[in-house]
Write a structure and sequence with these properties.
By secondary structure, the protein is α/β, with parallel strands linked by helices. The chain has two domains: 45-74 and 262-346, no CATH class; 76-260 and 350-386, 3-Layer(aba) Sandwich (Rossmann fold). It contains 15 helices and eleven strands. It has an eight-stranded mixed beta sheet, with helices on both faces. A three-stranded antiparallel beta sheet has the order 4-5-6, covered by helices on one side. α3 (54-71) packs across α15 (335-360) and α10 crosses α15 (335-360). The longest helix has 26 residues, at 335-360.
Length: 389
């Protein structure tokens, strides 16, 4: 907030204002659209879910089980460490939360390394969607070969503040980035004009990637993101499809918060319709997806050991309001069974995204489990590699 008489001058410098003056800002370019036969897809997930009778809920569960068994591939376990993070992981005295995030980043790096996507060069562009303070990109830069010739782009709609930058300039390891003590990665304000790293403050749904300086016809784009929340994943996939410049040679996105997905944004409509779901079913599916997380938080194994991410903490423990707490017990739906259904719903939603990538890019896409549940309940990543790799 500010005084009314200072509003005009404040808006010129306010970090929270929408930057509509930037050439890459195109309002709602990646938003998606509802279709004529989608029914009441705008209905909120909670209101749609709470109106279901017991029999309607069981019918959804039976349909989910059938689709999962017939259409969804087994999710491969691919948990590996990357040497770039090795020294940080072996540092004595670091806390459990830091170790947890380091292991997640290490495994995501290994997925990029697996198909030689960490080779830099003058045509290579790394784009992190939902970058926040740039922690994942920091480790990507640490691991990339020929980083001095490589362009790194960080995209986030939030306004980042770097109060500790002035104290950490002496930690600068390279003209393009710095690694901060305690493994926090930030981009130094003094490096904003450095042409090989760019931070764009824009909502992904409003980003025309083809208008970003440095994206050329011959650019080879590698896309990454960690816990890209709900519809932001769909905005990102549609963003790279809409780009029209360069070619996407790889994608590694750690998925998160399916309860925040929307039918309008969702890129996998074609698949869901093929298996018999419509827009009016989608609010129910996203509500059921939260069972995967809310159930795990009550399990004995995770109660004492699991630290939730910021995104996971925002998922309500009881995501279906106004439902009698004895309902599931009466229906014979145990916590473990509900968790299983929630994970199957997530896999079905994500399979639609996999098919979207396969149909719109010269890539082979799949889902992998990149860390154990003890590290994060949101432990599935969408990965896509060029068919020639």
């Amino acid at each position: 907030t500010c005084f009314e008489n200072k509003l005009s001058s404040h808006m010129k410098i306010c970090n929270a204002r929408e930057r509509m003056d930037k050439p890459f800002f195109v309002k709602r370019i990646n938003e998606g659209e509802n279709e004529d036969d989608d029914g009441d897809a705008s209905c909120s997930s909670s209101s749609r879910f709470k109106d279901l009778t017991d029999e309607e809920l069981m019918e959804y569960i039976r349909k989910i089980e059938k689709i999962y068994d017939e259409s969804i591939d087994t999710i491969e376990l691919r948990i590996n460490d990357h040497p770039a993070v090795g020294d940080a992981l072996s540092r004595p005295g670091i806390g459990h939360s830091v170790i947890r995030h380091l292991k997640q980043n290490s495994s995501l790096l290994s997925l990029l390394e697996d198909k030689d996507l960490l080779n830099g060069g003058k045509d290579k562009v790394f784009v992190e969607f939902g970058a926040g303070r740039g922690k994942l990109t920091g480790w990507v830069i640490e691991a990339v070969k020929k980083k001095e010739d490589t362009l790194f782009i960080l995209i986030d709609k939030g306004s980042q503040r770097y109060k500790i930058d002035a104290k950490l300039k002496h930690d600068l390891l390279n003209p393009s980035y710095l690694i901060v003590k305690y493994f926090e990665v930030v981009i130094d304000f003094s490096l904003r004009k450095f042409k090989k790293i760019k931070r764009l403050r824009v909502d992904i749904q409003d980003l025309d990637l083809s208008r970003v300086e440095g994206i050329e016809e011959n650019s080879e784009i590698v896309v990454c993101g960690k816990h890209l929340c709900g519809a932001a994943t769909d905005f990102s996939l549609r963003c790279i499809t809409n780009c029209g410049k360069g070619s996407t040679c790889g994608i590694v996105i750690a998925l998160c918060c399916h309860h925040r997905c929307t039918w309008k944004a969702y890129v996998g409509k074609k698949f869901l319709k093929e298996v018999g779901f419509s827009g009016k079913d989608f609010p129910v599916l996203v509500s059921l997806s939260s069972w995967a997380v809310s159930g795990s938080r009550q399990s004995v194994v995770n109660k004492e050991q699991l630290e939730l991410s910021d995104e996971e903490k925002e998922i309500p423990s009881t995501p279906e309001p106004n439902i009698n707490e004895n309902r599931y017990e009466r229906m014979g739906l145990s916590i473990d069974y509900r968790e299983s259904i929630g994970r199957k719903v997530k896999a079905i939603i994500d399979h639609g995204r996999v098919e979207y990538v396969n149909n719109n890019h010269d890539l082979k896409s799949t889902l992998v489990q990149y860390v154990e549940q003890i590290s994060t309940l949101e432990n599935i990543a969408l990965v896509a590699y060029g068919n020639t790799l």
